[in-house]
Amino acid sequence: MDPHSAEDGRLLQLCRTAFHAEHQRQFADAQRMHREAVAGLTKLVDDAGWRDRERKRVARKQIKFHATRVEILRPIVEGRKAGLDVVLPTSLSMQESLMTVAPNGRLPIGLEEVWLSDYTANKAANPTAAPVADTTTFQHLLQTPVPPYTPTLDPSLPDVTYHIYSSGEGVWPVGHIFYFKAKSMNESRETLYVLQAPKRRRYQIPLATLHRSTEFTSPCVQVQIEPVKPESQNSLNLAMMKGRSFTLYGASKRPIVEKSDRVERKWGNRRFHFAGREFVWETAHNPAYPDTLYEVEKSWPKPGSKTGKREHKRLGRRLVWGDLKTGLKKVGMIHMVGGLDQVFVEYVLASQLARLAVIIHGHD
User: Fold this and answer.
1) Are 113 and 94 in contact (CB under 8 A)?
2) What are the tens digits of pLDDT across the range 134-185?
3) pLDDT given at position 131
4) What does the pLDDT read at residue 171?
5) Non-local CB neighbours of 347 within 8 Å, separated by 6+ positions
6) Are 293 and 311 contacting, i.e. CB atoms less than 8 angstroms apart?
7) What is the DSSP string of 83-152?
8) Half-sphere exposure of 33 (CA within 13 A, CB side)
């Protein structure tokens, strides 16, 4: 769908508004708007020409999703149920997440990263400018070192689990688009996020995009994937096990660069900075398993290493980890500690799903 087209833009706004109404517990209005979205998207598919394959593909997926929401909302609108089991993530829930201060006064780390990226960009553009009005609130981010984040999280909060499912389809002229859906913990397994990874045959995956299921046409995080040297047709397993660096673009003004300790080697640790703090993705002994995320107190080059290996001292408990599954559609689970804000969740989820896309579909 083309957001620059007046017709498509109106439909996209209708689709977003329906989910915003759900978030605001305006269930009757939400159900009505979902029905209108289904009707509008169906007309778009019927009227689209043969050259509009991409518009039709996206519209058909949206039709199914909105039709499902109509049925999910039915018992609530009819008074047989009090509310939703799962409130789907939207841009509205992201804004609310960034405004939620923990009981101990801890700010959301996503808000800290957004503020710090703005501050750094403004300082670089105008070094002599007066401090911004809210510098006092974020003064701790200008310290060296920045106070640690992990110890401020409430350990009594329950962990959050995303169930990961994989699928794909052939799309002309791209080749294939592979999907990784992050679904909810409840029995209905509602889709919360979808990572799309387009791939042409005999080419590596250059880019993957994470979308909220409620805003399927606009990504919340884009992951640029560093290529590796191609292997022979007989060494594809070796190629998919080669680690690589990621560059993520999302809510922050600056890209988040996950730099691999070693290049052209087996998947290993990747390090990045977020809100002035260092984090590391530690790779399991079997690289096919999801990484584990820790905050780092300090890191240093490993003595004697000729390939760039680094060592580090962890700071507190793990923040993200996962399990591998070998089912036909379900491929794993990603777990996170409670208390992470939506911006940070979306960054780390995009990273892990992009890595999964490379390992499963990255080379042919």
Assistant:
1) no
2) 778 899 999 999 999 999 999 999 999 999 999 999 887 778 999 999 999 9
3) 65
4) 84
5) 110, 221, 248, 250, 256, 274
6) no
7) S-SSPPP-HHHHHHHHT---TT-PPPHHHHHHHHHHHHHHHHH-TTSPPPTTTTTTGGGGSSSPPPSGGG
8) 18
* Alpha-carbon torsion (32, 34, 38, 40), positive or negative: positive
CA distance 39 to 78: 22
**3-state SS, residue 338:** coil
- DSSP track, 261-298: SSSSSBS--EEEEETTEEEEEEPPSSTTSPPEEEEEEE
Give the residue, 162 or 3, on which the prediction is more confident. Answer: 162
Contact 164, 181 (CB under 8 A): yes
| Burial of 303: CB neighbours in 10 Å, binned 0-12, 13-18, 19+ | exposed
Rounded Cα distance between 76 and 81, Å, is: 5
Q: pTM of the full predicted structure?
A: 0.93
Q: In 311-323, which positions are buried (b, 16+ CB within 10 angstroms) versus exposed (e)? A: ebeebbeebbbbe
Rg (CA), the chain: 22
- For 70, the token pair is 């109509």
Residue 269 structure tokens: 């640790």
Element at 343 (helix H, strand E): helix 342-361
What one-character DSSP code corresponds to residue 308?
A: -
Structural tokens at position 265: 């080697």
> How many helices and strands (H and E) does the chain possess?
7, 12
pLDDT of residue 47: 86
CB atoms within 10 A of CB 283: 20
What letter represents residue 281's amino acid? W
Mean pLDDT of the chain: 91
The tokens 């017709």 sit on which residue? 7
Q: pLDDT by residue (tens digit) across 299-350?
A: 999 998 888 889 999 999 999 999 998 777 899 999 999 999 999 999 999 9
Q: Which residue has the higher pLDDT, 344 or 265?
A: 344
Q: Could you tell me which residues are beta bridge partners of residue 165? A: 181, 330
Mean pLDDT of 286-305: 93
